[in-house]
Amino acid sequence: xxxxxxxxxxxxxxxxxxxxxxxxxxxxxxxxxxxxxxxxxxxxxxxxxxxxxxxxxxxxxxxxxxxxxxxxxxxxxxxxxxxxxxxxxxxxxxxxxxxxxxxxxxxxxxxxxxxxxxxxxxxxxxxxxxxxxxxxxxxxxxxxxxxxxxxxxxxxxxxxxxxxxxxxxxxxxxxxxxxxxxxxxxxxxxxxxxxxxxxxxxxxxxxxxxxxxxxx
Length: 216
Known about the structure:
Number of helices: 9
Order of helices and strands: HEEHEHHHHHEEHH
Oligomer: single chain
Shape: globular
Low-confidence stretches: 6-28
Helix content: 40-55%
Structural class: alpha+beta
């Protein structure tokens, strides 16, 4: 989903643009090309992974239909990575309306609830048609998941979560994220489905960039 495609209806209509299928004009064995399949950042982005580790970031938005479709594939890929690869998700905010879902993600992370509820958030939005677009909708949904709502609100409204959202927006800008889902590697490289052709190819490009980052 590109930055200007914030209408869910418009996004669903355009869903074919970021195909997850295996067919592709980009040969699987071919090396990805800078400027075509990915870009190298003119100025390195911030990296939180320790020295000797390669940081890989998935930029996403819970309400994005492309992110919803990509999530199971990304989750499987992330779990298969070796110990020297640090994979993390960063929720984007292209405007202020995205902030509640940013805070939702970081609150779930802070309460160690992501393993239980991350996929359920996608399901609530894209299958159950609960938009989770504002604080009240999020609190009501959280209560139905058996979570202590008072504790959730405390974390949700905390300085820590606000600071995490601020840093996420900063990192999004450093990578110059054009749409979601997108991926950043080692603070130096950026790719997405538009550049690589589809999300299968995005992961192939990322694998190649991880290998290149190790050598560097």
